[in-house]
Design a protein that fits this description.
globular, 147 residues, alpha+beta, 3,4-dihydroxy-2-butanone-4-phosphate synthase, three-stranded mixed β-sheet, 3,4-dihydroxy-2-butanone-4-phosphate synthase activity, 33% helix, DHBP synthase, two-stranded antiparallel sheet
Length: 147
């Protein structure tokens, strides 16, 4: 198992998609560094995974952007969902191009809360500040890969 983790870390660092699997939840997430996101990467993920597109972020970044955590009734298995957003000024927000632009805007340190519109189409997840030491979740695993 350890060798698979090392291979996944290396692949992620080389800006490739990796799969994060949870036996407890019986589900897997496809992850790539947000800095590498393109509309083509979003299309690829939609074709092979066909699930919900999410962006994992530190809770501090979400607070800086004044993005609120969704009430628990909107969360499954205590997944830390936050308000979905779009980049202000994008088209419908649904297209792969719009979603890639939104991701790039959210991770840009110069982005202000007014640069985002709500509600949007990009689901956001807030990682525990202590990471995997506090919560054994996909959200925290992705951010650990980013370090």
């Amino acid at each position: 198992m350890f060798s698979r983790v090392v291979k996944a870390i290396k692949a992620f660092q080389e800006r490739h998609f990796v799969i994060i699997f949870s036996e407890d939840e019986g589900e897997a997430d496809l992850a790539i560094p947000a800095s590498e996101i393109t509309s083509e990467a979003i299309l690829f993920a939609a074709r092979v995974a066909s699930g919900l597109l999410c962006l994992a972020l530190p809770q501090k970044r979400l607070a800086d952007l004044e993005i609120d955590k969704l009430p628990s009734r909107y969360r499954v298995q205590d997944t830390p969902f936050y308000e979905p957003v779009d980049a202000a000024g994008v088209g419908s927000g649904v297209s792969p191009k719009d979603r890639a632009k939104t991701i790039r805007r959210v991770i840009d340190p110069d982005t202000k809360p007014s640069d985002l519109s709500r509600p949007g189409h990009l689901s956001l997840l807030g990682a525990e500040p202590l990471g995997l030491l506090k919560r054994d979740g996909h959200t925290e695993a992705v951010l650990e890969l980013c370090r």
